[in-house]
Amino acid sequence: MKAMKLEGSGGAERYVLIFDKGDEMIQLLTAFAREKHLSAAQFTAIGAFRDAVLGYFDPERKDYRRIPVPSQVEVVSLLGDVALKGEEPVVHAHAVLGQPDGSARVGHLLEGHVWPTLELILHESPGALRKRHDPETGLVLIDLTSR
Q: What's the whole-model pTM score?
């Protein structure tokens, strides 16, 4: 992955990240967020994955049901945010993945291996968003009262 700052300063930067063939997007974006000390950001991306794993939240199990997507797909839409859980940045992403027949697979992005590229624009926000565990759902959700 290559990254370049497009503009901004003082916690309001904007970056472009270009992922390379074989890169695992969630892992590398999390590492970038840690390196840049991101505490609140949003992102969008387009490109393609050679394979991915989506998730669908099962409220009864309080966990994501894993949905493997074992083939080449277009990343038609990928959006998400970065917020802090404790002192660590957490990436939350949802994806629409286009298949060769024009149908789509959608869900929470758990993994995505890039092929041949993924172009991501990230907008950092000043301040911090913090996540907390919600015992009712089992999810880690943004908590606006902890600002």
A: 0.92
Task: Inform me whether the pLDDT recorded for 59 exceeds 90.
Answer: yes
Mean pLDDT of 65-84: 98
Sign of the dihedral defined by the CA atoms of residues 131, 134, 135, 140, in that order:
negative
What residue type is assigned to position 3 of the chain? Answer: A
Sign of torsion over alpha carbons 43, 48, 49, 55? positive
CB atoms within 10 A of CB 95: 25
What does the alpha-carbon distance between residue 6 and residue 14 come to, in Å, rounded to a whole number?
5
8 DSSP assignment:
-
pLDDT at 146: 67
Could you give the CA distance from residue 144 to residue 9 in angstroms, rounded to a whole number? Answer: 24
- Average pLDDT in the chain: 95
Fold of domain 2-146: 60s Ribosomal Protein L30; Chain: A; (3.30.1330)
Give the Å distances, CA to CA, from 116 to 39, 75, 91.
29, 11, 22
Of 88, 102, 85, 93, the closest CA to residue 142 belongs to 85
